[in-house]
Design goal:
This protein is of the alpha/beta class and 605 residues long. It folds into three domains: 243 residues, P-loop containing nucleotide triphosphate hydrolases (Rossmann fold, 3-Layer(aba) Sandwich); 64 residues, no CATH class; 221 residues, P-loop containing nucleotide triphosphate hydrolases (Rossmann fold), CATH 3.40.50.300. The protein is built from 24 helices and 22 strands. The strands form five sheets. A six-stranded mixed β-sheet has the order 6-7-8-3-9-10, sandwiched between helices. It has a six-stranded mixed β-sheet with strand order 18-19-20-15-21-22, sandwiched between helices. The radius of gyration is 25 Å and the shape is globular.
């Protein structure tokens, strides 16, 4: 039996908690003087910039600290009124479920059904009980059709749903989710959030939920509280969701968070009008949508401008339209190579229509089947990608987005059909030379880390391409600075997820590829880092690089890409058009719906 104080309704509390990894008491604590509590059944969103200590707090509340990770700890962590020190670790595993950010860290079996059963079998549940729980949870989470599928043939989002199901099958009292919707398409995300809300509202199944998330808009409807850490590992904000969104919005925004876009639009609109006292204090999408008929012509024009300047064609990027000299990373800039100006001359804006229409990549009747499974990931795909394009690649989980990037990078060979680079079949090109043209940022940042130090990792590409002597020390140091305030000799695996992603970028930029492919690059990144990443890609695109981003983050793609390519569930092409046309056709995205309503009112419709 797990000893829980049933007389207390406090599920979790931190009292003056601080923690230092290792035994060096002179090190700065990763988290410092943390105090807060959660009542049973509450949902907390734990937010903050990369490296602020969010993961450390989840380790402490799940018992990983102090049972698996050692260090110097001060204060206490209580679970249901009992110190985490007084639990047996096995009992904690029954009490708390932890779904990590990267599903590959937790997959342990070869079949989906076996994965869900794994924990139940280890806790010696009866076969009948295991079968009943698998049946119930797989239907609840919408993955019943995947039960007999191999786990290595699932998309990233499908793997995340399987891992979550495996923990929910254990019926934990506390569920910790580290960016649970990061790998999910819109339908899967809506399904997951609706299921979590159903669990939260269930009187028969009280569960306390902690969600680590940068994107507050995704979880604002199910969160009771928000706790924000600052870069020093201290509590910056802590309070009820409605209270913080209504009265502390600017403070939230200053904490380097991705605040709900609708609140950002509303607050900026309020600043442009003198009649904000008549507007409601508490705002959501429906409230703002219903407010539109009450606005004057002047107010409608101002609201239209705020939507476009923030969510569709960001005003902040106009200054880079003719940018040629450097890449900005806040206070950091990366200068172009100087040793051989002719060799590394910047690609200027193309002048002729012929150059604009240059096709850099093309697929003809491209099909890919996973070996020994019969599963078609890419289905008869024929597309042309122009030199200097900036494409958002979208589609549901399992539609073949990642597979397509692998094929374009020549990491997979087509089952049938062809891929051309500048009118040459890539199968006939020197694979070494073609690899130099491609910069690939994988979905899992650890997939492309091969070396024991940050410095070695960044120089891995130049070493393989025999251009090591062409990399200036000053340039290398700036790439290391991009990752954060870290020693170049540090082991990359000790970096946070977000830092690993920035390390991936540095290791790509260093050898100056012609094409950049990114698979879910926004996962695990705070607002400042995303801004720096997008700014860099935008400038590189202005210099002529071709960029393709696979992502479920439609808001980011709406703001920053030029063109959208959408795949169907069967891996075939659904749509491929400039972003304005695409999003106006599929207008269920909030900013587009809002803009259409405003424009209709302006036209008197």
């Amino acid at each position: 039996m797990i000893g829980i104080n049933s007389h207390s309704n406090i599920a979790l509390s931190f009292n003056d908690f601080s923690f230092i990894y290792g035994r060096n008491s002179t090190e700065r604590p990763v988290v410092k003087k943390i105090s807060f509590s959660l009542i049973e059944g509450e949902t907390l969103v734990l937010a903050g910039p990369s490296g602020s200590g969010k993961s450390t707090l989840t380790y402490a509340m799940s018992g990983i600290i102090p049972f698996r990770i050692k260090g110097l700890m001060k204060g206490e962590v209580l679970l249901f009124g009992k110190s985490v020190w007084d639990y047996d670790f096995i009992d904690l595993s029954r009490l708390i479920g932890v779904v990590k950010q990267n599903p590959l860290d937790q997959l342990t079996t070869f079949k989906v059904k076996d994965e869900i059963a794994f924990g139940l079998e280890n806790l010696e549940y009866s076969i009948e009980e295991i079968e009943n729980r698998i049946e119930g949870i797989s239907k609840l989470m919408g993955i019943h059709h995947l039960l007999n599928r191999d786990t290595d043939q699932l998309s990233g989002g499908q793997k995340q749903l399987v891992i979550l199901s495996s923990f929910l099958a254990l019926k934990p009292k506390i569920l910790i989710l580290d960016e649970p919707i990061a790998f999910l398409d819109r339908n899967s995300e809506s399904l997951l959030l609706s299921r979590l809300k159903k669990l939260k509202d269930s009187s028969e199944y009280p569960i306390t939920i902690i969600i680590v998330e940068h994107r507050l808009s995704r979880v604002m409807d199910i969160a009771d509280k928000i706790l924000v850490l600052n870069e020093k590992g201290e509590i910056a904000l802590n309070g009820g969701t409605k209270e913080l969104f209504t009265y502390k919005f600017n403070e939230l925004k200053d904490c380097n968070l991705r605040v709900p876009w609708i609140l950002n639009i509303y607050n900026q609109f309020n600043q442009t009008t003198n009649h904000n006292s008549s507007f409601p204090k508490e705002m959501n999408f429906n409230n703002l949508f219903n407010l539109i008929p009450q606005l004057t012509q002047e107010q409608l024009e101002k609201l239209r401008k705020v939507i476009i300047d923030n969510e569709i064609h960001p005003k902040s990027f106009e200054k880079y339209e003719s940018y040629q000299e450097r890449i900005e990373f806040e206070n950091l800039y990366i200068e172009s190579y100087k040793q051989d100006k002719k060799k590394y001359a910047l690609v200027q804006e193309v002048d002729s229509q012929n150059d604009i229409d240059d096709i850099i990549l093309e697929t003809r009747d491209l099909t890919f089947k996973y070996p020994n499974s019969g599963i078609i990931a890419i289905n008869n795909l024929s597309i042309q990608i122009q030199k200097g394009d900036f494409i958002g690649l979208v589609g549901p989980n399992g539609s073949g987005k990642t597979t397509l990037l692998y094929l374009l990078a020549n990491l997979y060979s087509p089952t049938s059909g062809e891929i051309f680079y500048k009118n040459q079949n890539i199968e006939k090109l020197n694979s070494y030379e073609y690899a130099r043209k491609i910069g690939f940022i994988f979905q899992n940042p650890e997939t492309m880390i091969f070396n024991p130090t940050i410095k070695d990792e960044i120089l891995y590409g130049p070493k393989n391409f025999s251009i090591l002597n062409e990399i200036e020390d000053n340039y290398l140091n700036k790439l290391i600075e991009l990752i954060g305030n870290e020693d170049m000799e540090k082991n990359p695996y000790k970096l946070s997820w977000g830092q690993k992603r920035r390390l991936n970028l540095s290791s790509i930029f260093v050898y100056n590829p012609e094409i950049i492919l990114l698979d879910e690059p926004f996962i695990g990144q705070d607002q400042r880092t995303i801004g720096a990443l997008i700014e860099t890609l935008f400038i590189e695109n202005k210099r002529g690089k071709t960029i393709i981003i696979s992502s479920h983050d439609y808001h980011m793609l709406l703001k920053y890409t030029k063109r959208i390519m959408e795949l169907n569930k069967d891996g075939s092409l659904r749509d491929y058009d400039i972003k304005d046309n695409y999003f106006r056709r599929y207008s269920n995205l909030g900013p587009i719906v809002l803009l259409k309503q405003v424009e209709q009112r302006l036209m008197g419709v």
